[in-house]
Amino acid sequence: MVLVIVLNIKVTKMVQIEKTTDNRIPFSQRLFWSVFSMFLGFTFCFLLFQFQREKEFSQDKLNKVLENYNYQIYQRTHQSANIDSTLAQFLTEIPQKELRITIIDPTGLVVFDNIHPEELNNHNNRSEVKSARINNKGFAIRKSTTTGLRYFYSASLIDNYIYRSALPYDTYVKSELSIDKDFIYFMILMTTIFFIVLSRFTFSIGRTISKLRNFAHVMEKDRVVETAYTFSNDELGDISQNIVTLYHKQQIAKDTLSMEREKLIKHFQYSKEGFAMFSGEGKETLSNILFNQYINVISDKQIKNAEEAISIPEMEPIRSFLRRSMVDPNRKRKVLRESLTVDKNGKIFLIECILFLDNSYELSISDISRQEEESRMKRQLTQNVAHELKTPVSSIQGYLETIIANPNLAPEKRQFFIERCYSQSTRLTGLLRDISVLNRLDEASDMFDLSEISIKRLLGEIQKECSKELAEKRIETNIILPGNPVIYGNYSLLYSIFRNLYDNAIAYAGEGITITVNCYKEDPKYYYFSFADNGIGISEEHINRIFERFYRVDKGRSRKVGGTGLGLSIVKNGVNFHKGQILAKNRPEGGLEFLFTLKKRV
């Protein structure tokens, strides 16, 4: 049973931040100067209003004094026949000795003026006179066209006559019109207090925002937050503290999720099943080594990308299932599953497809023949070892018994028997050596030395050593190694892998063939190799067992060419030592092909 966990997290950007520069003014300063500028504007408007109000109050106060004089002048001149003496007496009674008194008739002619007694111009065009004609009273501060001096005029309309009093704009008038500046000092004091309070408030906000900004930079760079952040005891501090707390919780959840994801990926990579995930558009999301291996065993053509797996003929039922289910309007919210069994190249594979709600899907390939195969191998192992050891020992014993039993044996016969004994002992030595290598791989694989091995150089050495056998059987080689692959592994085992594959092809593939070694794919961790020949191949019934120890396709022929029956088993164990997998299949055009992976660093 396969347990599959799918984690699909989609993050959509919903917040856009306007482009800024590094020399921007901090928010706390902008807040401070914005509020303080508004307060200064309000203060200025208030001072302007209050200044105008005080000015009008001072003018009105002085105007009332002069209006009172106007009414006194009217009463005194109305009761006296001699205006000059009456007004001269009046001026002696008041403190403003420089008071200018003017009486204007309804036509605008000056009837009396104590400063300029000669005939004057019509005064109806004077501003204070105009105002008095309309409102019964009026005042003005202006320069006199008659004397050339600046006066404060106050005019009153009494019995259609204008009675006007004027004081020169001297020290007295200035003092009377002066403004009380206490309100200015008060506003300066309030502005200072407001400045201090606002600066403390915005400094507190700025300090909190600065901590949040620093915290955001740490989060943005995905660094570990080591500083303990302490915020102010207010609503903004509470919000900031909540943000930091939520981030820590999110980091814990993220770390946990990352750990679980890593465990899940490791599980998939080292699973005994081929596994691959695809998006709704058929793009590969994740695949492990076994999937690539299994799909190449199933396919008649070489598959380099997991995305090509769905297109091979054997996957037609899965393709039909996906086409039908992805557009099914009655599917609702269901996860659908489809499976099929493929019997190919001596192996039986169970292929399962799971279609998820977002139309992403996964493919898993299980080799369901493996358990029975391993069980059978264990049963036959002891029997095979005993049998393989018995054969050369029996031969040696038989030849030696013949020599001992026949002391008068002809020299040429004796020499023949001795050479046969030597040949069988050599075979026995090779057999014991191969069994020793396999035992070391099974029980003490950590005892092998590791170093950087160039596959190109290694194959060159093997070709030189096998050059005689290759020439005798007219075998050509084609080596395709893009990028000059280098593996950090054990030289002896890597040599055994490729040497045994060469020896197997030379011994059994036939004459006049071509051997092709191709590194057809590379990912961050593994190299993917193909070792193929275009020889006679082997029957499908044997492909599933050629990596078994002592298994022989043609026992008589194998012994004739001197094989131990352990070469391909050593190849498989050497590949396993280098964290890879190996499979074999017959090529459609003829010959045998081995597909195996080797990890770049063991």
From TrEMBL:
Keyword Chloroplast in annotation: no
Lipoprotein listed as a keyword: no
Reaction(s) this enzyme catalyzes, per UniProt: ATP + protein L-histidine = ADP + protein N-phospho-L-histidine
GO cellular component terms listed in the entry, alphabetical order: plasma membrane
GO biological process: cellular response to phosphate starvation
Keywords of this entry: ATP-binding, Cell membrane, Kinase, Membrane, Nucleotide-binding, Phosphoprotein, Transferase, Transmembrane, Transmembrane helix, Two-component regulatory system
Record-annotated Histidine kinase domain positions: 384-602
InterPro entries: BphY/WalK/GraS-like, HATPase_C_sf, HATPase_dom, His_kinase_dom, HisK_dim/P_dom, HisK_dim/P_sf, Sig_transdc_His_kin-like_C
Transmembrane segments: 31-51, 183-203
Subcellular localization, as worded in the UniProt entry: Cell membrane
EC number: 2.7.13.3
Coiled-coil intervals: none
Molecular function GO terms recorded: ATP binding; phosphoprotein phosphatase activity; phosphorelay sensor kinase activity
Gene3D superfamilies attached to this UniProt entry: 1.10.287.130, Histidine kinase-like ATPase, C-terminal domain (3.30.565.10)
Protein name: histidine kinase
Organism of this sequence: Parabacteroides chartae
